[in-house]
Structure formats: C-alpha cells, structure tokens
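ok trying this again, last paste got cut off
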Amino acid sequence: MTKISMDTCIQAVKCYLTGNSSKNRVAKQFGIANFRFRILVAVYEKHGIQGLMASPKVTGDFRASLVEWKQSHNASITETCAHFAYPSYASITNWERIYFSEGKSALLALRQGVKRDQSRECTTTAETPGKRELIVADTERRLKKIGSLEKATKRQISEVIIALRAKYKLVDLIQALPISMSVFQYWQQRLSQPDPDEEIKARISLVFNAHNGNYGILRVTPEVRAMYVSEGRQAPNHKRIQRLMVEMDMHCQKYGKRTRKYDSSKGPSGKKAKNKLNRRFSADRPLQKLVCDVTELQAHNGDKVYLEVIKDLYSTRILEWELSTRPTLEFSTAPLERLVAHLPSTGYQITLHTDQGW
C-alpha cells in the first residue's frame, strides 16, 4: 500500500475544511483511509497545522497518561488522538491492550521501536485456566431472562462487562465474550451518558401502573401522547413508545390466550354443522343472513359476564341480545326464541350463522 506523506494529508484536510465535500469523498480522492482521515481532521481542528507536523515525544509517562485519560473520560480513539495531537491510532490500541493485560508498569517499561516478546502475551491465559468458563457462566446468570448468550445484544453484553469489571480484568472479559474492545468502549460511553428516554419511560410506567397492567401498547400510547399535547409539547412517535415498552418488558397479560378458560369455538365433539355462509358476509335484502356470537367480558368487580348478540348483515342492526353471568344453554337460546317469535314472513330462506360452540 502506498504511504501517504504528511503534506498530502494536510492538503486533504484543508480541502475538506474549505470545500463542501464529505470526509469520505475527500479521503477517497487523496487515497487516505476514512478512519485515519477523521483523526487527522480532528487533530487539525484542535491544534492546527502544528498538531500534525510536530508529534509529541512518546515516553512511558506519555503512554500511561494517554491510556488513563481515555479510560477516565470514556473517550473514543478519535477524541484521544485529537486531545493529545497524536494521530497514530494503532499505537493507542496496542498501548491500551498492554495496560489492561500486564498493567501500567509494563507500559512504562516499553521502549519505543522495540517489538515485544510474543511469548509474554499469552502468560495471562496460561496463569488463569478456566477463567473463560467462569466469565461465561457469570454472564449467562446475569442474562437469565434473555435465554442464552447468543441472543444477547452488544449493549446487554456491555452492561454485564461493566458489572463484572470489579471481579475480572477487562481484557479477560473481552476475550471471553463475543464483543470487541471498540464496541464495548462505544457502549460504555453511551451508558455513561444520561438516558434521553428517561422522561417518556417514566410516563409510560405511570400510565401502565395506573391501570394495573391492563393496558397494552395500543391503549398506553394515546394517553402518553395526550400528556405531551396538554403541555403544548410535541408528542412522541407511537413507534418510539412501542419500542420502549418492549425494552421495559411492559405488555398486557390480562387477556392472554392462556389466561382464558372459556372458549365457545371448541364446540361439541360430535357432528359438525355445514358452513353455509362460507364468509359471504354481504346481503342484498333484510333478514336474509343473520350472525350470532358470544363474547366474554369482565365487569368492574372482576366477575365474568357473557354477551350474546344477533345481527342482520344487511342493515348491521342488532336484532336481539342477551346478558348473563353463565354461558348456559338457556342463555344462548333465549334471544333466538324471542327473534323467531316476531320474525315476519319474508318468502325466502333466513340463515342464522354462528360458530360450532353455539
């Protein structure tokens, strides 16, 4: 690969700052790697041309102070390079690895331009047999709700690493878990910042708990949006509320299929009636097609109530209805008997359609 001179790099930085092109386009034009060009621009904006021309003297104290500043400020590679006017990001990555694997003393003793003995890099693993299995076991215990480590997101893994840093070295955690150092540092910085969704999460919890968990996404969303509208503020998007409720594991379980004991669709185990309507729900004359169904409702005191209605598909008018606390045979036939008693003579067949349970 062709080495890019510093004069070319400075020319590229000036071209970007004075023009309208993006960083990626200018970097491609001058043949500079995108990540390196971003660092060059950051150093130039903070220190000027002298920051690129005169690099600081690299000593043991410089390496240690750089790595410690980066960790204490949760800074990225680009921010660290710009702060110290040191554009060699590969060296920073190597120093950070040495700092966490062998300590500050090894970083202070490192001589510039001398390659380290490769056999020494494996001493940590050799000294701690089985540490990876312990880290994975501790991680899976903390991710018990997710099910497995493979299903965990990078954010969830980063949260576990932050919690386990008091027990294990960071380098051991990174090596044992499916996450890179750069991705962990990104999430470490994100998690250290204030949560931008803290206010809306509090309002979602307020509405959800006010209704004893009986409200799901479709009912919580309009109430949360109404709070913001009443204050003259822009209401959050419904997709944002849905995403946050999923993250907070808030969903209505009151009317789940597993909690229902009553289901009229099961019907008898004997002969089944023929489906004459066959989903043809339109009618061109009154009383030609009637439909009937039973719905289970919950009263304010918690008791179950059953409602049966008979509707005309031609006019969508409710012809008869019945309300009861028990789904008995008398309850189901009462509205039908009243309807038959006052049905007029139509001259054509009248069909009453319901499910097999009724």
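PB: full thing came through this time. Confidence is low (pLDDT under 50) at residues 118-127.
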